[in-house]
Amino acid sequence: MSALALDLRRTAGFLVADARGRIVGRVECPMYGTSPEEPDALSVRSGFLSRRRRLVPADSIEQIDDGSRVIGLRVERDTIRTFL
Asked: Global pTM?
């Protein structure tokens, strides 16, 4: 989990794709909940001017590709919670 937490800190601007390969949005920032040192979720914005954001927990991340700047998820887009 600690190696993944270090990667979450540098993921602002990455695209997020669900298990089917559909784009969920772009990472706005890491979110800290249980520990101030390790992020445990990502805030993902759905569109450029959209107020809608999705909360992507670290548990649902399957892989992070630094070369293409894409984060692949294990879950589908419909299961990700939204918030304002």
From this structure: 0.85
The torsion angles phi and psi of 12, rounded to 5 degrees, stand at: -60, 130
28: tokens are: 């706005």
Which range of residues forms the domain containing residue 21? 2-83
- Amino acid (1-letter code) at residue 76: E
Number of domains composing the chain:
1
Cβ(71)–Cβ(45) under 8 Å?
no
Distance of CA 29 to the CA centre of its chain: 8
Strand partners, 53: 45, 83
- pLDDT average per 10 residues of sequence, the chain (84 residues): 61 95 94 88 86 90 93 93 83
Beta-carbon contacts of 50 under 8 Å, excluding residues fewer than 6 positions away, are none
